[in-house]
Amino acid sequence: MAETDPEIDPEIDWTGLRAEAEQARLRAYAPYSAYGVGAAALAEDGRLVTGCNVENAAYGVGLCAECGLVSQLHLTGGGRLTRFVCVGGRVGAEAELVMPCGRCRQLLWENGGASLLLLTPAGERSMSEVLPDAFGADDLA
């Protein structure tokens, strides 16, 4: 992530937010895949929220890092997410930026909306770019 990269807003502390995601990844419970994921985000009031993946022997009931992050958002007062970073990698390997899965993109849309900014392997992207034509609360009205 070069400082002169036109895809990155220099006013956003993506480095600090990524460091928080990397710390969350170290707390992941991933005994089956050995692939830890950490996520970090800022809420509109400046709060930092984080999450890590939690695997389960019944694979389908594992929790993605974003699930824990969104739970922490609501546990600590709710609000909207404004910035988000997700990292992942094999235990013992260096963390890399990763994209949220489809389920988690929907969670992020619900809690941050179209303008939520994500740091992705391709640079800074809005939720409307990573989940175009999203289904949301307006569709239920």
TrEMBL record:
Keywords: Hydrolase. InterPro entries: CMP_dCMP_dom (IPR002125), Cyt/Deoxycyt_deaminase (IPR050202), Cytidine_deaminase-like (IPR016193). It is an enzyme of class 3 (hydrolase). GO terms for cellular component: cytosol. Residues 12-138 form the CMP/dCMP-type deaminase domain. GO terms for biological process: nucleobase-containing small molecule metabolic process; pyrimidine-containing compound metabolic process. Its EC number is 3.5.4.5. Gene3D superfamilies: Cytidine Deaminase, domain 2 (3.40.140.10). GO terms for molecular function: cytidine deaminase activity; zinc ion binding. It comes from the Bacteria. Belongs to the cytidine and deoxycytidylate deaminase family. This is Cytidine deaminase. It comes from Nocardioides acrostichi.
